[in-house]
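Hi support team,

I've been running sequence recovery on a batch of backbones for a student project. Most finish fine, but this one hangs at about 90% for roughly twenty minutes before it completes. I'm not sure whether the input is malformed or the queue is just slow. I've pasted the structure tokens below so you can try to reproduce it. Let me know if you need the job ID as well.

Thanks,
M.K.
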């Protein structure tokens, strides 16, 4: 299949009514729709998701929405990068299969939360979605508000867009587990895809919109955590299955002088329970750390694929 390498028109929609009218047109033209959810500040990792969607579907729609419900009052909602014009340009110039329809849904906060929204969970009102049993561990342990906000906004977006296929990145592995369960539990009529993490080819550092917060020195030292994950995977490939040994391998490689590690964990890909050993179902080895005020996450899959 040939690909477009020049600038293409991107249709930008801002309201639910506009998206539903667009979706009806896609249906009438018998076009399959692939969906990529983002908060903007698009990078090569997002574009990789878009490219994967374009290889599967006739039309690709990308949501660009910084979702207040997944931020706590003390987090970076206000300073999270908002670069809509640049994002649209990146989508317009992305190399995609010829004929791919490119659409952006960039709603306002009022459009997505008609009753209003605050980052103070105790003062929130309206309808929210929670995926119990998967949302309270790992990221949910330190950010108890997070997956409630993610599940709520993605449910809204699935209902608005009604995609045939949805594409999410493995870098947010727990999010993928949570949303995959939500799709099953709520019987969403779509195919849920998990796309491997896009990394810097020079050092393997996972691409993230928050990487822009890092100083040059922090950026240089940040990939040590991924090196630790890779060391643990290499040990697993030699037959090591012990949680203690695999986590120790990450700790030994990570630059603890620069990385303030919040957690390193080995979890079941089925229910995210903590594992003492890696069994036949494999495991997710993941962690979170801070560099200054920037919080980062990464993971690798051991013995399985999504």
């Amino acid at each position: 299949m040939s690909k477009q390498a020049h600038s293409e028109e991107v249709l930008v929609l801002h309201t639910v009514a506009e998206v539903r009218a667009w979706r009806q047109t896609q249906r009438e033209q018998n076009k399959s729709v692939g969906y990529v959810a983002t908060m903007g500040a698009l990078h090569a990792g997002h574009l990789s998701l878009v490219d994967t969607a374009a290889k599967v579907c006739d039309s690709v729609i990308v949501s660009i929405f910084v979702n207040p419900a997944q931020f706590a009052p003390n987090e970076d909602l206000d300073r999270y990068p908002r670069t809509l014009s640049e994002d649209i340009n990146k989508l317009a110039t992305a190399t995609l299969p010829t004929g791919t329809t490119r659409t952006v849904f960039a709603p306002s906060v009022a459009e997505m939360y008609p009753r209003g929204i605050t980052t103070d969970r105790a003062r929130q009102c309206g309808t929210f979605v929670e995926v119990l049993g998967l949302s309270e561990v790992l990221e949910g342990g330190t950010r108890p508000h997070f997956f409630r906000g993610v599940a709520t906004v993605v449910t809204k977006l699935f209902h608005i867009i009604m995609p045939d296929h949805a594409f999410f990145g493995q870098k947010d592995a727990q999010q993928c587990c949570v949303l995959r369960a939500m799709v099953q539990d709520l019987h969403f009529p779509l195919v849920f895809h998990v796309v491997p993490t896009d990394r810097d080819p020079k050092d393997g550092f996972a691409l993230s919109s928050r990487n822009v917060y890092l100083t040059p020195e922090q950026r240089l030292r940040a990939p040590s955590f991924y090196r630790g994950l890779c060391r643990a995977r290499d040990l697993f490939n030699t037959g090591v299955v012990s949680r203690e040994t695999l986590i120790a391998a990450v700790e030994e490689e990570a630059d603890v002088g620069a990385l303030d590690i919040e957690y390193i964990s080995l979890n079941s890909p089925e229910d995210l329970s903590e594992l003492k050993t890696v069994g036949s179902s494999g495991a997710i080895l993941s962690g979170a750390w801070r560099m200054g005020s920037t919080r980062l996450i990464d993971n690798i899959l051991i013995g399985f694929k999504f």
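--
Follow-up from support: It reproduced on our side and the slowdown came from queue contention, not your input. The chain has a mean pLDDT of 95. No action needed from you.
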